[in-house]
Amino acid sequence: MDSKNYQDHYFKQAKSQGYRSRSALKLIELNNKFKFIKNGINVLDVGSFPGGWCQVIRKKINNGKILGIDIKKIQEIDGVKLIQGDFLKEESKKIIKNYFISKIDLILSDMASNTTGNKSLDSLRTNQLCLNILDFSKEKLSKNGIVVSKFFMGSEIDEIKLKAKKNFKKINFFKPNSSRDESRETYILCSGLST
Ligand SMILES: C[S@@+](CC[C@H](N)C(=O)[O-])C[C@H]1O[C@@H](n2cnc3c(N)ncnc32)[C@H](O)[C@@H]1O
Description:
Structural class: alpha/beta
Shape: globular
CATH architecture: 3-Layer(aba) Sandwich
Bound molecules: S-adenosylmethionine
Number of strands: 7
CATH class: Alpha Beta
Distance between the termini: 46 Å
Number of helices: 6
Order of helices and strands: HHEHEEHEHEHEE
Strand content: 15-25%
Oligomer: single chain
Helix content: 40-55%
Largest sheet: 7 strands, mixed
CATH superfamily: Vaccinia Virus protein VP39
């Protein structure tokens, strides 16, 4: 499938299933493989706009807290708390911590920085977001919790691997079929917090 047909195919598939974004299909694939979305757990979804991942989570969870945050304003989703804010800011992290009170069972990040046209700079910025998620997870993830974060294959992969290995016992990498072949986008899944 060429790039345009590919885009159309996954976009149409996501829309036909009622999802706001094509990205929703990536989370469905990740969850089909690793089965981390379970009813009753508390979930944080970072970089949620327009809300596709939150919709997928909400379909599977009806008695756990779900919080989505993005710099952009997200249209309401029943049963999901949505906030507009920059995850990198301390005030956003404070709001998140106050909302969950206890630890978070699943921390998801599909954050990507705004594209500049410079691929190296784009991956550097997105990978800094991934590193920030790993640091936050060390502090806020429950003992048996899981963190899933987008990153781009690039020069900082060693730093991401190093931090993940230091903080977690188990690490997996996964590139969903619904992620473009030519994209360097990949997801890291970490579990088993090191004490
Ligand atoms: C690929 S989109 C997410 C798509 C989403 N998972 C969905 O299914 O609809 C990446 C998002 O990351 C957000 N983002 C980037 N940097 C951020 C930050 N520092 N704090 C919060 N959100 C951020 C962007 O605004 C953008 O909406």
